[in-house]
Amino acid sequence: MQSWVNRTIEEPLVTSSNESMSERVVAELQHRIIVGTIPVGTWLRHDAIAQEFGTSRTPVREALRIMAAQGLVTIEPNRGARVNGQSSQDMREIGVVRAELEGLAASLAAAHIDDAQAERMTAAWQDFNDAFEDTGPGEELAERWMESNETFHSTILEASGNRYLQQAIADLRRKLPHNISFGAYAGSSRLIARNMAEHQAIANAILAQDADQARTLMKGHIRSSVEAVAHWNERST
């Protein structure tokens, strides 16, 4: 497998003006881990990363420190950082809590979602459905899935209107990035189709203001996604 350090960024990373270089590095490295460009066990070298991103070692050290706090890497002095992800047991334990909290977010969204949020939520899963029909599996589909999945879940969380709930879920997502599940779906049209169907059912329940159904469907969705990732992790180790 080609080493990640030999990969060139074909287009500049697009970031907001207030996003630091360390945040840029974190976002890109997380993305590569999610899509499998950087496999579990890979050593991330400070000098190589700094050279690729055209920066000094300081923001790279900060980026790896952030990823270590997330549990994605383990830093070893004089060697760098090793991609280790979470254990399958860790994933399942995090998933139990995430399912309950995101289920609560969905039930609150059913009562509070406004028209603009409803439109964004619906467009998110529909956009990915269109992309899947147009392109089929591949790297482009992975990009579209991550974008639509992020929009779908973040819109529901926003619509919940509870900032403490949002903070709690954000903390869990730092430990287990929710977009990592596409790695488990890649190559399986059946799993991708199931994911799309779950998103549509959740959206329909929220739009129908059925809080109990929205909660139940979201809990099941998170549990199935995390279990798919846990199985994928077990097969990869």
Describe the protein's architecture and organization:
The chain is globular, with a radius of gyration of 18 Å. With 237 residues, the protein is mainly alpha-helical. It has helices spanning 21-35, 46-53, 57-70, 88-112, 115-135, 139-160, 163-175, 182-185, 189-207, 211-236; strands at residues 43-44, 73-76, 80-83. The chain is built from 10 helices and 3 strands. The chain folds into 2 domains: 4-83, Winged helix-like DNA-binding domain superfamily/Winged helix DNA-binding domain (Arc Repressor Mutant, subunit A); 88-236, Four Helix Bundle (Hemerythrin (Met), subunit A). Helices cover 70% and strands 4% of the residues.
Notable characteristics:
single chain, 237 residues, mainly alpha, Arc Repressor Mutant, subunit A, Four Helix Bundle (Hemerythrin (Met), subunit A), 3-stranded antiparallel beta sheet, 10 helices, 3 strands, globular, disordered N terminus
Provide a concise account of the structure shown.
This protein has 237 residues and is mostly helical.
| Termini gap | 16 Å
CATH 4th-level superfamily of the largest domain:
GntR ligand-binding domain-like
Structural class: mainly alpha
Please count the beta strands (DSSP E, at least 2 residues each): 3
Instruction: Please bin the fraction of helical residues.
Output: over 70%
DSSP summary: helix tally: 10
Largest beta sheet: strand ordering: 1-3-2
Shape: globular
Strand content: under 5%
How many domain modules?
A: 2
Return the CATH architecture of the largest domain: Up-down Bundle
